[in-house]
Amino acid sequence: MTVAIEMGQTTAGAAATLDLEELLATRLLVQGNSGSGKSHLLRRLLEQSAPWVQQAIIDPEGDFVTLAERFGHLVIDAEDHTERGLQVAGERARIHRVSTVLNLEGLDAENQMRRAAAFLGGLFDVARDHWYPMLVVVDEAQLFAPAVAGEVSDEARKLSLSAMTNLMCRGRKRGLAGIVATQRLAKLAKNVAAEASNFLMGRTFLDIDMARAADLLGMERRQADAFRDLERGQFIALGPALSRRPLALRIGPTETKPRNATPRLMPLPEATLEDARAVVLAAPPPEPVRAPRRTVAPDLLGQLMAAKSAAAALEPAAEAPEQPQLSAEQIAERRERMDKILAAVMAQPDAGFQAIGVLYQEFGVRCRIEGLAAAVPDLTEFRRMLTRARAGLGSADMADNDEWQDVMLRASILPEDMQGLFLMIARAAKEGWPCPSDATLARAYGSRSLRRARRLLTYIEEQGLIVCQLDGAGRRIVTLVELAWATAPGDPDADEAPVEECSDVPA
């Protein structure tokens, strides 16, 4: 079935249409400076396609919540939900085919990125039976897929960029059609922008953005100045869902309006205040005392924590009992039990590719079931445990072992997500096992890309921690600098093998 959406009119007065079915297969990129009409364009597209396809809008400014009254979208206020709750909400919205608006208004940049990543992850990770066609619109996409690191944490940036990359690069087979809008192409990550096959370019003034827009549309550089002359609501379109040649069009009117209208000039009041100083600089009123917001625990871990807090509140006030001192044998036993729990978590299908927050929640629940609630580590310590577990090392291997403490010190100069690879290689070198294959290293990093595994190995070598060599048969040997540990020759193209099985392979 072919559905043609009327976006507006061309400069010649003809109807400018968009092939919705083709858009679902090819994705769309919208670019234009602030005030060029991007949000109006997205609103027109969403209104025209609402009767035909499910929609999800990532809305950082709360502009699209007005779609709910006219078209029945479910508005999800992100500040009222945890990341885990939003991930589940994304899954359920996909399963039940409910169009949604994720309202991120009121959150800072980092929390916007985290919650948007969680929601997009829920849309992306749903079971194959529910891969229904869906438009996923991300306004101000440069906030969620920045080209360079900003003031947010690396973890939040990686989570958000990964979710956006999955949407644009791998979403098509899952029925997800990404539509991203940005003020500046130079601020948007290239691997996100490059996956779009349809383009709507609006008014822009910076040379770098005009040149890049002209390149994407197949225009000559001397024609790039045309983007300066576009009026508000005018765009140049190109792509299989729009036009095979660059086509200038003007976006038509919309049925709904944004909550935040464009500022208009207003006359100043004619009457002047007799005592402006007394009115403007009067003492501020006392701040109202706000009652704490009541929230619902969104998951099993939250319910356990809420129940524990409620029980503590009902008990009479008393001094906290002193924690009993554990013997060395008890500490070792506890470490061993927690290592087994972590191994069980890592043994689940696709555990190597799940977000650390999901793994931490699963680990915490299992520890409580085993009666180790008081021993659950914080997220920072869990990261270290996970790094060691992916390298096949337990807490007992690291405790009171000077050699491994030295290895951990060397690993600390690497980014946190690469330390597990270095520990895996160090373990293989210490035991004289074959060098791990690219597939094994990729899984330890949480990726399926063999090329990325090779790049990471090259990066570690550039830091002066290892030396990689190939023998006459093309097998890889890795030597740890200054420690004189070297792996046995290993085939870099071999299939993935768990680290625990390496000891069974003859050197």
Automatic annotation (TrEMBL):
Cited SUPFAM superfamilies: P-loop containing nucleoside triphosphate hydrolases
Q: Where is the AAA+ ATPase domain?
A: 24-191
User: One short Pfam family name for this protein?
Assistant: DUF87
Out of the domains of life, which is the source? Answer: Bacteria
Report the PANTHER family cross-referenced here.
HELICASE MJ1565-RELATED
Its recorded name reads AAA+ ATPase domain-containing protein
